[in-house]
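sry for the spam today, last one i promise. C-alpha cells for design, 259 residues
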C-alpha cells in the first residue's frame, strides 16, 4: 500500500508539472509544436518497443514449443501432461517474460481437476511422486506448489489448504515415529504454509490466528519441528504489526511455547 501511495504521489507531481508546462505556453499565447511532436515521437517509440516485446514473447514460446512441445491429451497420461507443462515452465525461467509464459501455462492446468489432484498427491505422498515422476519429482513438487498457489489466488484456496494440512500431518507422523523427512519436504511445507497464510490479510491473521491455523490444518499435537514451521510463518506476519516482544509472546501462546 505504501508503494501505491508513493507511485500515486509521483504520478500526481508529474501530471502537475506537465499541465503547468502547457498552461505557461497557452498563457503566452503560443502553440508549442515541438512539445506535440515530442509526444507523437514518444508514442511511436512506445509502439515500436511494444512490437519488439511481442516478438520476443512469441520467440520464447516458439523456442519452447520446439524443444518441449505440449503433450497431446489424446495419447499422454495426465501425469505426463502435468510433467510436460512443468518442464516447459522450467525452461522459460530466466528468459524474457518468463512470468507471463508460466502464468499462461498455469491457466491450462487450473481448469483440470485431475491436474490439481495429482499436484496435491505429489506433495502429500512422496512415494507417489517418485513412482510417477522419478528424477523429475522435485521439479513437479516445486511447480505443484505454484499451481495450488495460483488456484488459491483465483479464488479456490481449498486444495492449497488441504495439501498444507495433509503434508504437515504426514511429516509430523514420520518424525514422531523416528523417521527422517525426505529430500527437502520440510521446505515444501514452509512454502505451502507461506502460500496459504498469504491468502489472508495481515489483519485477519493477527485478529483471528486460531481460525487461520485451523484452516491451514494445524494441530497442537504436531511434532515440534512441524509446529515451528507454522510458528515461524505466523510470527513473520504478526511482527509486521507488533513489537518483537509482543510477537514472541503471541507466538509462544499460540504454538505452546514453540519459537
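last one done:
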Amino acid at each position: 500500500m505504501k508503494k501505491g501511495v508513493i507511485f500515486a504521489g509521483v504520478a500526481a507531481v508529474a501530471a502537475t508539472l506537465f499541465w503547468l508546462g502547457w498552461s505557461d505556453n497557452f498563457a503566452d499565447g503560443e502553440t508549442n509544436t515541438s512539445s506535440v511532436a515530442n509526444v507523437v515521437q514518444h508514442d511511436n517509440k512506445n509502439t515500436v518497443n511494444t512490437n519488439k516485446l511481442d516478438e520476443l514473447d512469441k520467440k520464447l514460446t516458439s523456442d519452447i514449443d520446439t524443444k518441449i512441445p505440449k503433450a497431446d491429451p489424446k495419447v499422454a497420461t495426465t501425469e505426463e501432461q502435468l510433467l510436460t507443462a512443468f518442464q516447459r515452465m522450467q525452461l522459460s525461467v530466466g528468459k524474457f517474460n518468463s512470468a507471463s509464459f508460466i502464468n499462461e501455462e498455469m491457466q491450462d492446468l487450473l481448469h483440470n481437476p485431475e491436474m490439481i489432484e495429482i499436484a496435491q498427491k505429489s506433495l502429500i505422498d512422496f512415494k507417489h511422486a517418485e513412482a510417477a515422476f522419478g528424477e523429475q519429482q522435485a521439479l513437479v513438487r516445486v511447480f505443484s506448489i505454484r499451481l495450488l498457489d495460483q488456484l488459491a489466488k483465483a479464488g479456490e484456496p481449498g486444495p492449497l489448504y488441504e495439501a498444507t494440512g495433509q503434508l504437515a500431518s504426514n511429516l509430523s507422523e514420520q518424525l514422531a515415529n523416528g523417521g527422517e523427512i525426505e529430500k527437502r519436504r520440510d521446505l515444501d511445507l514452509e512454502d505451502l504454509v507461506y502460500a496459504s497464510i498469504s491468502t489472508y490479510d495481515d489483519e485477519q491473521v493477527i485478529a483471528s490466528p486460531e481460525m487461520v491455523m485451523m484452516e491451514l490444518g494445524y494441530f497442537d499435537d504436531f511434532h515440534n519441528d512441524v509446529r515451528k514451521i507454522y510458528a515461524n510463518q505466523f510470527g513473520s506476519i504478526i511482527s509486521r504489526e507488533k513489537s518483537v516482544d509482543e510477537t514472541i509472546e503471541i507466538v509462544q501462546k499460540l504454538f505452546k511455547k514453540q519459537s
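The two ends are 29 Å apart (CA to CA). ok im logging off now
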